[in-house]
Structure formats: C-alpha cells, structure tokens
C-alpha cells in the first residue's frame, strides 16, 4: 500500500471506543464529556472485516487504541481474531494500564505482541492532578503483571511545562534501568485540549538525562511500528525513546493511518478530512469495493502536517488558508477540531 508520496502505509491504528476511565488534562475535560452511543461505534465484526481488507492491501501492523480500549468488553476476542488474519504480523495495544492486571493473561493468550502504557509521573499526587483520579497503584500493578509475559512493554510519557521538573523526568527514565521495558517521551501535540498546553522539548529532556545517567547512545535497530527513535544508556535494560512530531517532524516517513471508533478513516492526525467507512459497510458495500475505497483514500494521504504554525501562533487557525499543499490551500475547516479521545490516541 503506497500513497502518492511513495510512502509505504503498513500500519493502522484502530480506536475501539471513545470512553475512558481517566480524564487526563491533555485529552478530556473533567466533566461534560458526551460519548458516542454504542450502536454508533464499529462492532468487533466490522473491525475484523476491515482488518481483512487492510491486510489484503498490505497493512501488517494493527494498534488497538481508545479512549481506553480495556473498558470495552471482550477485547481478547478481538485481538485473537485479528491475529488470525493472514498478513497481519503484529497486534499491539495502547492503554492507561488501570485494568491491565486483570486482563493481561487473557490478552497474552490471545496473542497480543506489545503493550504501550500511558504514564506521565510516578508521584501519586501529580498523577491525580494529571488524570483526575488516584489510580497510580493500579497502573504500576498492570506494568508488573505484563512484564511476567513475553510481551514488549513501552511506557509513554507526555511531559508538560506546567509539571516540569527534573525529578519527574529522571524517575520515569529509571523505570528502564532494572526492568525490561522502554520509556518514551512524547511531545504534546496541538490537538484538542493539547492546543492550550506546552510540552518539554526533546533537547531539554536529553540534557536532564545525560547529566544524571551519562551519554545517550543512538540505538539503530527497530523496536516497534512507529516513528520513535531510541537511545541506550549504560547499565539500563531498556531503551529511552522520543516521539517529537512537531519539533522533529517525520511526515516523510509516516507509515500509518487511523480509524476512529465511529469508523472514520483518517490519513493524518491534524486533518479532519477522511472517509466514513462504517456508513459504507452498513449500506451493504462488498469487500472488493470497500478495499478500493480504502486504497483510494489512503493514496491521498497529505504530504505533511502544519502543527508548528499553530504552536508558534505565527498565524491564527482561522487564517491558515495561506498554507499550500501541492498547490491547494488548507483552510481552518480542514483542520481537526475533535479531542484525542474522539480520534483515537
């Protein structure tokens, strides 16, 4: 599956729900969330059918996300069914870890290949401030239980300027010292509530780490499906990674598309445009026609995002029509306005 910019698209991120048992400040408001009615989200059977189409088109990697995917019942069944599809090589999960200790055994039996756990701090008070719930112990227990299985574990941390301190960065890094897991620092993106927050730069984080632990040595081997670049630290079992989509833009090598829980195929996180696959399926489209629709949609994946224009406030969003994409103007209406939980993390 190759788009119009000769990028191989082999990775699909599928949101199975917009619901979550936390309210992280960069993702959801404390109150007032309106969730999608269950009948309006993709059924497991629809997701499995789509994964067969994706696999036939050359996609081999599937990430299950939310909201929080573990709040949806019978997730191990979905994992097992996707893993059984010819051409699917890798099925992974992104979770906040709250329910992980109770479900990881069944997920492991179903064949899950890797688990990414979102965790921004090891301080219980800061955790409560960031997530609005006091459930850090459940997350740590989930990590502990998952490490008992032959499953790759990665910790996703989104450091924010409001909570920026060296000790927090170093405590997160320390998780990779004596445990077989990788810690990744993810740059906050100007999507949804993230537009009002400021993150910590990759360069600042590296400086903090190296003052404490020594030189970060680039690690060249692949450790996953996405764009993260990793470093080794002497004496550490795990690696330290960075995903800096804004300041270290990697659009030229982007290999993924997203499917929302409502069945909307998105080619780029920043853009609102895409295609309503769920409606086509429920109207009776056959697999051959459905695959062709997917192929055509993905072929028009945008060349790149324009997050910097928003973060730097060089232009207001309502005046972004000057940005050119192969000669075409990008208007404010074309930019994504939904929250991350509604898109799929």
UniProtKB/TrEMBL annotation:
<comment type="similarity">
    <text>Belongs to the radical SAM superfamily. MoaA family.</text>
</comment>
<keyword id="KW-0501">Molybdenum cofactor biosynthesis</keyword>
<protein>
    <recommendedName>
        <fullName>GTP 3',8-cyclase</fullName>
        <ecNumber>4.1.99.22</ecNumber>
    </recommendedName>
</protein>
<dbReference type="GO" id="GO:0006777">
    <property type="term" value="P:Mo-molybdopterin cofactor biosynthetic process"/>
</dbReference>
<dbReference type="Pfam" id="PF04055">
    <property type="entry name" value="Radical_SAM"/>
</dbReference>
<dbReference type="GO" id="GO:0046872">
    <property type="term" value="F:metal ion binding"/>
</dbReference>
<feature type="binding site">
    <location>
        <position position="118"/>
    </location>
    <ligand>
        <name>S-adenosyl-L-methionine</name>
    </ligand>
</feature>
<keyword id="KW-0949">S-adenosyl-L-methionine</keyword>
<keyword id="KW-0004">4Fe-4S</keyword>
<feature type="binding site">
    <location>
        <position position="26"/>
    </location>
    <ligand>
        <name>S-adenosyl-L-methionine</name>
    </ligand>
</feature>
<dbReference type="GO" id="GO:0061798">
    <property type="term" value="F:GTP 3',8'-cyclase activity"/>
</dbReference>
<keyword id="KW-0479">Metal-binding</keyword>
<feature type="domain" description="Radical SAM core">
    <location>
        <begin position="4"/>
        <end position="227"/>
    </location>
</feature>
<dbReference type="InterPro" id="IPR010505">
    <property type="entry name" value="MoaA_twitch"/>
</dbReference>
<dbReference type="InterPro" id="IPR013483">
    <property type="entry name" value="MoaA"/>
</dbReference>
<comment type="subunit">
    <text>Monomer and homodimer.</text>
</comment>
<dbReference type="InterPro" id="IPR040064">
    <property type="entry name" value="MoaA-like"/>
</dbReference>
<dbReference type="InterPro" id="IPR006638">
    <property type="entry name" value="Elp3/MiaA/NifB-like_rSAM"/>
</dbReference>
<comment type="function">
    <text>Catalyzes the cyclization of GTP to (8S)-3',8-cyclo-7,8-dihydroguanosine 5'-triphosphate.</text>
</comment>
<feature type="binding site">
    <location>
        <position position="67"/>
    </location>
    <ligand>
        <name>S-adenosyl-L-methionine</name>
    </ligand>
</feature>
<keyword id="KW-0408">Iron</keyword>
<dbReference type="InterPro" id="IPR000385">
    <property type="entry name" value="MoaA_NifB_PqqE_Fe-S-bd_CS"/>
</dbReference>
<dbReference type="GO" id="GO:1904047">
    <property type="term" value="F:S-adenosyl-L-methionine binding"/>
</dbReference>
<dbReference type="InterPro" id="IPR058240">
    <property type="entry name" value="rSAM_sf"/>
</dbReference>
<comment type="pathway">
    <text>Cofactor biosynthesis; molybdopterin biosynthesis.</text>
</comment>
<keyword id="KW-0411">Iron-sulfur</keyword>
<feature type="binding site">
    <location>
        <position position="13"/>
    </location>
    <ligand>
        <name>GTP</name>
    </ligand>
</feature>
<keyword id="KW-0456">Lyase</keyword>
<dbReference type="GO" id="GO:0051539">
    <property type="term" value="F:4 iron, 4 sulfur cluster binding"/>
</dbReference>
<dbReference type="InterPro" id="IPR007197">
    <property type="entry name" value="rSAM"/>
</dbReference>
<feature type="binding site">
    <location>
        <begin position="256"/>
        <end position="258"/>
    </location>
    <ligand>
        <name>GTP</name>
    </ligand>
</feature>
<dbReference type="InterPro" id="IPR050105">
    <property type="entry name" value="MoCo_biosynth_MoaA/MoaC"/>
</dbReference>
<feature type="binding site">
    <location>
        <position position="20"/>
    </location>
    <ligand>
        <name>[4Fe-4S] cluster 1</name>
    </ligand>
</feature>
<feature type="binding site">
    <location>
        <position position="94"/>
    </location>
    <ligand>
        <name>GTP</name>
    </ligand>
</feature>
<feature type="binding site">
    <location>
        <position position="189"/>
    </location>
    <ligand>
        <name>S-adenosyl-L-methionine</name>
    </ligand>
</feature>
<feature type="binding site">
    <location>
        <position position="24"/>
    </location>
    <ligand>
        <name>[4Fe-4S] cluster 1</name>
    </ligand>
</feature>
<feature type="binding site">
    <location>
        <position position="27"/>
    </location>
    <ligand>
        <name>[4Fe-4S] cluster 1</name>
    </ligand>
</feature>
<dbReference type="Pfam" id="PF06463">
    <property type="entry name" value="Mob_synth_C"/>
</dbReference>
<feature type="binding site">
    <location>
        <position position="251"/>
    </location>
    <ligand>
        <name>[4Fe-4S] cluster 2</name>
    </ligand>
</feature>
<keyword id="KW-0547">Nucleotide-binding</keyword>
<feature type="binding site">
    <location>
        <position position="254"/>
    </location>
    <ligand>
        <name>[4Fe-4S] cluster 2</name>
    </ligand>
</feature>
<feature type="binding site">
    <location>
        <position position="154"/>
    </location>
    <ligand>
        <name>GTP</name>
    </ligand>
</feature>
């Amino acid at each position: 599956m190759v788009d119009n910019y000769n990028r191989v698209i082999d990775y699909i991120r599928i949101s199975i729900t917009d619901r979550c048992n936390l309210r992280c400040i960069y993702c959801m408001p404390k109150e007032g969330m309106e969730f999608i009615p269950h009948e309006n989200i993709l059924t497991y059977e629809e997701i499995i059918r789509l994964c067969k189409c994706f696999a036939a088109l050359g996609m081999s990697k599937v990430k299950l996300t939310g909201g929080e995917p573990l709040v949806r019942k019978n997730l191990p069944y979905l994992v097992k069914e996707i893993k059984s599809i010819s051409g699917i090589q890798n099925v992974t999960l992104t979770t906040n870890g709250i329910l992980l200790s109770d479900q990881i055994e069944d997920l492991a039996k179903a064949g899950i290949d890797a688990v990414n756990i979102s965790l921004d701090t090891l301080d219980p008070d800061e955790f409560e401030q960031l997530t609005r719930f006091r459930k850090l112990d459940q997350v740590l227990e989930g990590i502990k239980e998952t490490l008992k299985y032959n499953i790759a574990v990665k910790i996703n941390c989104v450091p924010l300027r409001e909570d920026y301190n060296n000790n927090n960065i170093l405590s997160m890094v320390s998780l990779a010292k004596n445990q077989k897991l990788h810690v990744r620092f993810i740059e906050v993106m100007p999507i949804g509530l993230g537009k009002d927050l400021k993150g910590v730069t990759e360069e600042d984080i590296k400086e903090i780490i190296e003052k404490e632990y020594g030189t970060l040595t680039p690690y060249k081997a692949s450790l996953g499906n996405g764009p993260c670049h990793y470093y080794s630290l002497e004496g550490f079992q795990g690696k330290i990674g960075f995903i800096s989509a804004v300041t270290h833009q990697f659009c030229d090598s982007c290999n993924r598309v997203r499917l929302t829980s409502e069945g909307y195929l998105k080619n780029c996180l920043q853009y609102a445009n895409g295609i309503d696959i769920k409606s086509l399926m429920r109207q009776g489209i056959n697999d051959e026609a459905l695959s062709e629709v997917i192929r055509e949609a993905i072929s028009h994946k945008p060349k790149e995002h324009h997050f910097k224009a928003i973060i730097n406030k060089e232009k207001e969003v309502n005046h972004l029509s000057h940005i050119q994409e192969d000669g075409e103007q990008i208007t404010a209406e074309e930019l994504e306005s939904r929250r991350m939980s509604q898109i799929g993390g």
